[in-house]
Amino acid sequence: MSIRGGMVNIYERQNSQILSSICFCDGLVEVEPYQSLNVGDLVNFYNFSSIG
Known about the structure:
This protein is an all-beta fold.
């Protein structure tokens, strides 16, 4: 997933075994198991550039 202008964009191909998507992402979003998200929902975003 990437973040642009405060919006999170999810990559189409996601799965625990598809690690290639992480090469193009900016960080991670925290989502609880079985949690559904809708456009406009606030999420915790962990930017890779801020993880030291």
